[in-house]
Design a protein that fits this description.
Length: 304
């Protein structure tokens, strides 16, 4: 009961525009620096280099939410382009993750698509891969439409499927052959569109993992959940699925020991590394997922 109240509270504040804007001026607070790699690209690239040295691959995300005009969306597009160039210049092993609302999806579909074309042109030139993060349900269909449009020209782009959505299994079937990240889902969704109970979200997670791997498609399993990780390890062994066909993904600052244990066991592990000053919404969603993460916030609050 308490967990549900705190989850709803953190998801509610994560969506508050005023707090998101205000937080940019506070600098990292409440321990956010433990889960956000830095406020600028140089610092983030240094962290990525350290992770690469431990055998971990990365995907870099320039944080940004609530983009409401074309100038902001163009600035975000330029930042992703610059991020791709920096990754290539510094020669770290990192993909890039983007959010379509940051690139203008709420402003105009064609404008957002054009921005993604610009990003993918550079990603192609620098031999890199871009994952479109999946946001809340109201953006799901449009995000998949943009992916479909982009894949007419590029194969170095994929997206995320959330197992809490009823539509997830059908989406997986429609996206055979696409490099996908599979997750449970981080937003507050209504029972009209999404499972609410953990056991149903978990069992749908197992179903979509099986479905995508069985179709021979490359699959990123993004979770911190030991039970899912152990299940995947066991199931791929039974099915004789090669370790080259999938990877585990975890968020920066979470389950560091598990990340390195998996690398030692020969699995590919990719760390999602967020950076930038727009940390508030991202951090609040992490607190919503796991009340224990509040210890970051409490430690951070007292150490300020
Ligand atoms: P969950 O939170 O369900 O926890 C299950 C169990 O795992 C816990 O009970 C505990 O035993 C263990 N556990 C979890 N966290 C732990 C920790 N820190 N320490 C110790 N044990 C822990 N969502 C989305 O909607 N769109 C997206 O694009 C993405 N992208 C994304 C990328 C990556 C790389 C990751 C890892 C996650 C996302 N997500 C996401 C978030 C995702 O949807 C989900 O909300 C979180 O990963 C939380 O779910 P988990 O599967 O990690 O475990």
């Amino acid at each position: 009961m308490l967990a549900k109240v705190s989850k709803n509270f953190f998801l509610f504040v994560s969506n508050n525009k005023w707090l998101n804007h205000a937080a940019k001026k506070w600098g990292f607070s409440f321990g956010a620096s433990q889960v956000v790699a830095g406020d600028n690209i140089e610092v983030a690239l240094k962290k990525i280099k350290e992770l690469n040295d431990k055998g971990l691959l990365c995907t870099l995300d320039h944080l940004g939410e609530f983009v409401s005009n074309k100038e902001e969306a163009l600035a975000a597009t330029r930042s992703v382009v610059q991020t791709l160039k920096s990754i290539s210049d510094v020669k770290v092993k990192s993909h890039v993750s983007v959010k379509l609302t940051q690139l203008g999806l709420d402003i105009d579909y064609q404008f957002c698509l054009k921005n993604m074309h610009e990003i993918l042109a550079i990603a192609t030139r620098t031999n890199n891969f871009v994952t479109i993060d999946m946001e809340d349900y109201s953006h799901c269909q449009q995000s998949l439409d943009i992916l479909r449009d982009l894949r007419k020209d590029y194969d170095n782009v994929g997206t995320v499927i959330q197992s809490y959505l009823y539509r997830a299994v059908q989406d997986i079937k429609d996206l055979q052959g696409v490099h996908l990240r599979l997750v449970k889902g981080a937003y507050k969704e209504s029972p009209e569109v999404a499972y609410q109970e953990k056991n149903r979200i978990d069992s749908n997670f197992r179903i979509i993992i099986q479905e995508h791997l069985s179709s021979g498609s490359y699959t990123a399993i993004a979770t911190h959940d030991d039970q899912i990780v152990d299940y995947v390890k066991q199931w791929v062994k039974e099915q004789e699925i090669s370790k080259d066909q999938f990877e585990f993904q975890m968020l920066y600052g979470f389950r560091n020991q598990l990340q390195s244990d998996l690398v030692k066991e020969g699995y590919t592990v990719r760390v999602y590394v967020p950076f930038g000053t727009d940390w508030f919404g991202y951090f609040m969603r992490r607190l919503a997922e796991r009340p224990q993460n509040i210890s970051f916030a409490i430690k951070g609050f007292f150490s300020k």
